[in-house]
Amino acid sequence: MREVDLRIEPGERVLLLGASGSGKSTLLQGFGGVLGGADEGETHGALLVDGIAPSAARGRVGMVLQDPDTQTILARVGDDVAFGCENLGVPRDEIWQRVHRALDAVQLDVPLDRSTAALSGGQKQRLALAGVLAMQPGAILLDEPTANLDPQGVSDVRDAVASALDATGATLVVIEHRIDVWLPLVTRVVVLGADLDGTIVLADGTPEQVLGARGAELAESGVWVPGHPPAYPPAPAQQPGEVLVEARGLTVARRRGLAVAGPFELEVRAGEALGITGPNGAGKSTLGLTLAGLIPAEDGSVDASPALAAGEKRDPFRWSSRALLTRIATVLQTPEHQLLAKTVREELSVGPRALRLDAREIDARVDELLERLRLTALAEANPYTLSGGEKRRLTVAAALATRPRMLVLDEPTFGQDATTWAELVGLIARLRDEGTAVVAISHDRAVLDALRARRIEVGL
Fold first, then answer.
1. CATH number at residue 307
2. Are residues 174 and 254 both part of a single domain?
3. Separation between Cα atoms, residue 329 and residue 292, nearest integer Å
4. 61-64 and 139-143 beta bridge pairing
């Protein structure tokens, strides 16, 4: 991003909006002092916190990153929340009082010695926020803090942030694509966009000035604006087809002997979207990974149809990696967990090359996916330099490159602006209509509504 002029006063509560890839996260990381030095990029102009470089404003800024895994530092929940306070030299007795208050504030009701690795994605987001609140910073920076949370979790996190702001007078800068929940809390909305010279401030003012007076214009540019929902794809024209995968008496677990959900009786059909919903920590992602053949069933069975198994055993977990690659593709909740290559183009080529397709076919598939998912301009970029929303579109595209019969998507629309959300949902709907079985795990109920998904609620 370039040529941005912006001043945020102490105590302001700012909602930072913009289309996917407009530079919102980069700006927030700059405020947080985590962009790195001159050897990691170029810097022009000045970026200051309390009149000094962000890297020197130790303890003044607390930040929750887009990917909570990158902020999970220690093995136990209590130690992780205490880490920032320890580095700031807070007295030991006060640290643990802050830890308990912060965990209560974000409603993360787990033992202090719970393994951080055992937390769900949504629980890790609460953990990251608790660590920030415990430090009691002068400014709180939040990058999509509710993206992977269930509806109750969204309210809990918003209320925890509101309480912290009321108690401390801290400054808030929050990035969210779905903004309804934050509007009652913020006093200013800043919208970033792009022109030929770089990133620009498209709008800056009160929520009423920005979203009221310019709502239609901003919605056209991809900003989520209340009252301007994106269009849904048409309903499926045909009834669901054959059963591709069925589960009977299925209980699922990330670790042997520690069941998290089940038993389930369910079928995944060709040409149908199956939506998996439920609260954080209920086992939704674990169920998806089990259906995809990536982890074994704890109890019961997962069986593929004879046509889908075709030469392999009935349980997808016992298939070869090559068979899984061509038949059941998975998009994980955290994009970074499945990035393999040095460029976007190479990332999309991994699957087709493993299938030993000829070069012309590989190029044709890659070019088509780059175009369909608005990644053409990023074809030679390193995948790790993409925004969160761009990484999500890349992992979806990579899953589609092998043209699987079944697609398991964990939070498929994370980080998308209104335009890319509609395009991504439309692409998934077309795959469904072409006969692909789609399993979508999501807290975004609009996704499941748009896909006309048959739903399974996973309870605690």
1. 3.40.50.300
2. no
3. 7
4. parallel
Residue 460 has pLDDT above 60, yes or no: no
Residue 77 backbone dihedrals phi, psi, to 5 degrees: -55, -50
261 and 204 within one domain: no
The single residue listed with the structure tokens 């919208």 is 191
Give me 305's structure tokens: 């149809």
Sheet containing 437-441: order of strands? 328-331, 406-410, 437-441, 273-277, 454-457
The dihedral over CA atoms of 154, 157, 158, 161, expressed in degrees to the nearest 10, equals -170
pLDDT-derived band at 38 (thresholds 50, 70, 90) equals: low
Residues near 392 by beta carbon (within 8 Å), at least 6 away in sequence = 331, 335, 412, 413, 414, 415, 416
Within this chain, do residues 201 and 299 fall inside the same structural domain, yes or no?
A: no
∠ CA 358-363-367, rounded to 5°: 155
Q: Tens digit of pLDDT for each residue in 326-348?
A: 899 999 988 988 999 999 999 99
Q: What are the tokens at 379?
A: 């074809």
Pick from 226, 151, 184, 18: which is nearest to 444 by CA? 151
Buried b (16+ CB within 10 A) or exposed e, 128-151: bbbbbbbbbbbbbbbbbbbbbbbe
Distance CA 71, CA 84 (A): 11
Q: Which helix (H) or strand (E) holds 246?
A: strand 243-253
Alpha-carbon gap, residue 409 to 429, rounded angstroms: 13
For residue 303, give the 3-state DSSP assignment.
strand
Residue 2 in any domain: the answer is no
